[in-house]
Amino acid sequence: MSRKAAVTALTALAPISWGSTYFVTTEFLPPDRPLFTGLMRALPAGLALLALTRKLPQGAWWWKSAVLGALNIGAFFPLLFLAAYRLPGGVAAVVGSVGPLFVVGLAALFLGERPTVKSLLTAVAAAFGVSLVVLKAGAAFDLIGVGAGLLSSLSMSAGIVFTKRWGRPEGVGALAVTGWQLTAGGLVILPIAFLVEGAPPALTGTNLAGYAYLAFGNTAISYFLWFRGIERLSASSATLLGPLSPITAAVIGWAALGQALGPVQVLGMAIAFGATLVGQLNPRATETPRAPEAPEVESFSATEKNGQEVSMDLEGSGARR
Q: Which of 7, 238, 241, 243 gives 20 to 30 Å between its CA and that of 102?
């Protein structure tokens, strides 16, 4: 396997893992606490990585980490959950699937990655495939929900582009930078969660196990692999891994929750997966130099999952990333 293929495969583990979020949320977590769940995903994971790496931002990286944390986590999660509550799950997923188109435009503006016919067509094909997988007949549209979904997708897309534009400080590993962003994003969500949802609910052992998985497997490791992959792949190639999340959610819903997968959904999965594969073929070489790896990150990454990371309720109950 080539180095590029290995990087792509590792990065793809992120949206694949995010596709399990809905199953874990419905089966292991207390109901109707999406912001608290977002907080429990981001802040414990960020603090754990800070404790592990023992590195804090320096200079301009204080505000850069705050901006990236807000775009990738702090603004993304609340907007996503607002869309999920205002829209059927399939509609929210389709609105979120326009992320690759946002990335194509933002990458042209901030990274100098000129849009190509292939990047535009694969982005449209991926969104169309996702719509076949999740969109239900007669689905309702809510302007506030659609607006929140588009803003959440734009937030994550901007996070991808600026993560690639700024890279990371020399001598600082991707694990530390991931910790900075998760902590900053969690601190953004913290007051929103308490203002909107009130005090934390009483937690059972099952709840704690679910939150542990979301915080460390689904978030700490997954975002580390995601940010690490963004450094090495073009922005458009990275974001086109996003359809793996709804595909994974569909498969888990079918296998574990008994949700139906008809011929149209299977066709949509094939189209979305095909667009993902085509998006990885002969990508333009990135114009942004990659920051050197810190030694401790290499040993961690040898044992090692976006865009977009959205998993959804295929029956229309909601969407989760």
A: 7
Tell me which residue of 228, 103, 237 sits closest to 167, measured CA to CA: 228
pLDDT value for 294 = 44
Predicted confidence (pLDDT) per residue in 243-266, tens digit:
888 888 888 888 887 877 788 888
Map residue 319 onto helix, strand or coil. strand
Q: Which residues of 64-86 are buried (b: 16+ CB within 10 A; e: fewer)?
A: bbbbbbbbbbbbbbbbbbbbbbb
User: For residue 269, what are the CA distances in angstroms to 11, 53, 158?
Assistant: 19, 39, 26
Of 252, 188, 239, which Cα lies nearest the Cα of 43? Answer: 188
Say if residue 113 is exposed, middle or buried (CB neighbours under 10 Å; 0-12, 13-18, 19+): buried
What is the DSSP track for 148-213? HHHHHHHHHHHHHHHHHHH---TT--HHHHHHHHHHHHHHHHHHHHHHHH-SPPP--HHHHHHHHI
Nearest to 225 by CA among 93, 92, 61, 45: 45
Claim: this prediction has a pTM higher than 0.85: no
Contact by Cβ (8 Å): 287, 113 = yes
Q: What is the distance between the alpha carbons of residues 62 and 177, in angstroms, rounded to a whole number?
A: 11
Determine the length of the chain. 321
What is the block-wise mean pLDDT of the chain (321 residues), using blocks of 10 residues? 88 92 87 90 96 96 97 89 66 72 92 88 88 66 79 92 94 95 97 94 95 94 94 89 86 82 86 89 49 41 37 39 53
